[in-house]
Amino acid sequence: MKKVVVVVDTQADFMNPDGALAVAGADALAAPMAAWLKALAPADTAAVLFTFDTHDVDTYPGSAEAEQFPIHCVRDTPGWRNLLDPARVDPAIPSYRLEKGVFAMWEEPDLRAEPIAGGDSVDRDAFFAELRAAGVEEAVVIGVAADYCVRWAIDGLVARGFHVTVPAALTRGIARPIEQVVAEDFAGQPVALG
């Protein structure tokens, strides 16, 4: 059975210790994440989607996120770049990127998954609906932060009928580790630690 992999916000501002919104311990994840992505097999993986937290200096101060966190992941800045090279993923596995401006990758309308190798983008909701229609029932989520964007990614995947696995060694949280997030927010739901 094939799975979809969602790689959440593995950007310099979160992953590097000197990032604008550094997540403690996230810098230690880059090498294991890269090795894990390289090991994905086309026979088992339907697609990989990299999400990008994306903000603008002009609009961020008025956002709900600005009430909790300093500005970060400003488009086209060093802090916005992904620390993981999508080219590490086997080229036989379709890889995509999705830019989002809020915690939940599901909240904003009209977001599109863009093929990393080029080609036409696809509506975010259609992207996941097509995977489900093709029989993909499993999703694996890695990234940061476990108690914010990773948590909301899991929530939306469950709502769309996926069984979700989160490798605990490939995520970090700001205030809560993924183990606590899964226990407190997803008890009784099809979410497991891997």
What is the makeup of the main sheet?
Answer: 9 strands, mixed
> Helix count?
5
Report the C-alpha radius of gyration, rounded: 16 Å
Task: Give the CA-based shape.
Answer: globular
Domain count:
1
Total beta-strand segments: 9
Instruction: Give the C-level CATH assignment.
Output: Alpha Beta
| CATH architecture title | 3-Layer(aba) Sandwich
- The CATH superfamily is known as Isochorismatase-like
Share in helix: 10-25%
Task: Describe what this molecule looks like in 3D.
This protein is of the alpha/beta class. It has one domain (3-193): Rossmann fold (3-Layer(aba) Sandwich), CATH 3.40.50. 22% of the residues lie in helices and 22% in strands. Strands 1, 2, 3, 4, 5, 6, 7, 8 and 9 form a nine-stranded mixed β-sheet that branches. Helix 4 (149-159) links the parallel strand 6 and strand 7.
Short description:
This protein is α/β, with parallel strands linked by helices and 194 residues long. Helices cover 22% and strands 22% of the residues.
Which descriptors apply to this entry?
about 190 residues, alpha/beta, Rossmann fold, 5 helices
Helices and strands in order:
Elements: E1 3-8, H1 12-15, H2 30-38, E2 45-53, E3 95-100, E4 112-115, E5 122-123, H3 124-133, E6 138-144, H4 149-159, E7 163-166, E8 171-172, H5 178-185, E9 191-193
